Amino acid sequence: MTSILMYSVRPDEQEAIQAWAQANDIQVDTTDHDLGMKTVDMIKGYDGIVIQQHAALPEPELYQRLKEYGLKQLTLRITGYDIVNLQAARENGLVVTNVPAYSPRSVSELVLAQVMRLVRHLGEASAREAKDDYTWAGLQAHEIHNLTVGIIGAGKIGSAVARIFRALGSTVIANDPVHRPELADTLDYVDLPTLLKRADIVTVHTPLDETTHHLINAQALDAMKPSAFLINAARGPIVDTPALIKALQTKSIAGAAIDTIEGEAGIFEKDLSGTKVDNQALETLKAMPNVEVSPHIGFYTDAAVNAMVNISLNDVKTILEGGTSEHQVD
C-alpha cells in the first residue's frame, strides 16, 4: 500500500487526514515533529511527504537524504514556500508543491476584523478601560465606507480582501503586475507610490521572495498617510520590523495589525507561558495599544484546514501516480 508521512500535524487536522486516507485507500501516518536534519530519517520507507512549518530547510544534505529514501516530491500544506531550498530540491529531483488557495476568505476575514479594530480604536479603548479610563478623546473613528483600501498583491487572497471592502462601500485600489479583468468592478490598479500615498488602509498579500523582502521599509512607511494603518497577513519579512516600530513610535502611521512577523519561528503556535520570548520587536509591538497582533492564524478556519489537508494529499497522490500537480512551485 502507498504510504505518506505528514510532519507537524495538529490534533485538529486528524479528522480530515483520516477521512482522506480511508477514501483513497492510502496509509497516512502523522508526527507532530517538524521536518529537519534530526527528523528526516522518519521518512524512510514512505512514498510521500507533506510538511507545514515555519522553520527553514536550507541544508542540501536534507534533500539528498530525501532522494536516497526514494522520495519524488516535497509537498507543503501551506501557501508560503520560502522555507524550501528550491535549488537543492531541484538538484535532487524533488517536485515542490504548495497550497496557494486553501481558503482566501479565511485570511480576508481576519484582515476585516483587524481593520475594524484599528479604525474603531478598540485596542486603545481597551487599554484605557484596563485603567478605568472611559474617556472618548482621540477615539473618534472614520466610517469604513469613507476610506480607501490599498491592496499590495491582488491574487486570490488579495482579491477576496478587495471584494469584502468594496461590498462595505470602500474605495479599493491595488498594486499587482497582473491586472485581472474580473476585478474591473471592484478595484482600480495603481502604481505602488500612488497606493501608499492614497490608501487609508495598506494591506499586504504578496508572496515572499527576493523582490518582496522588506518591500514595506522605512521609505514605504514614510510615504503613507500619518492617519493610515498597515496590515500584514502575508509573510513576516515583507515588512521591515524595526522600520515599522519606528514609524509607529514617531506617529508616521496611525497603527498596524500583524498576523506574521520576522523571527516568529519557534514562537507562534507555541505555548511560551512563563518563559522569556526571544523576539524583542514582537514584545514592543504587543505593548502598543494601536497595534493588533495575532499568532499567524489568518488561515485557521475549519474550511481552510480541511482544504489544506485535502489539496496537499491530492497533490502527493497525483505525483506518485505519475501525474503533474497544478500547484508545482518550481
Automatic annotation (TrEMBL):
Domain named D-isomer specific 2-hydroxyacid dehydrogenase catalytic: residues: 4-329
UniProt-listed InterPro entries: D-isomer_2_OHA_DH_cat_dom, D-isomer_DH_CS, D-isomer_DH_NAD-bd, D-LDH-like, NAD(P)-bd_dom_sf
PROSITE patterns documented for this protein: D_2_HYDROXYACID_DH_2 (PS00670), D_2_HYDROXYACID_DH_3 (PS00671)
Domain D-isomer specific 2-hydroxyacid dehydrogenase NAD-binding intervals: 113-298
Domain of life, source organism: Bacteria
Protein keywords: NAD, Oxidoreductase
Keyword presence, Ubl conjugation: no
Family named by the database record: Belongs to the D-isomer specific 2-hydroxyacid dehydrogenase family.
Protein name: D-2-hydroxyacid dehydrogenase
Organism: Bifidobacterium kimbladii
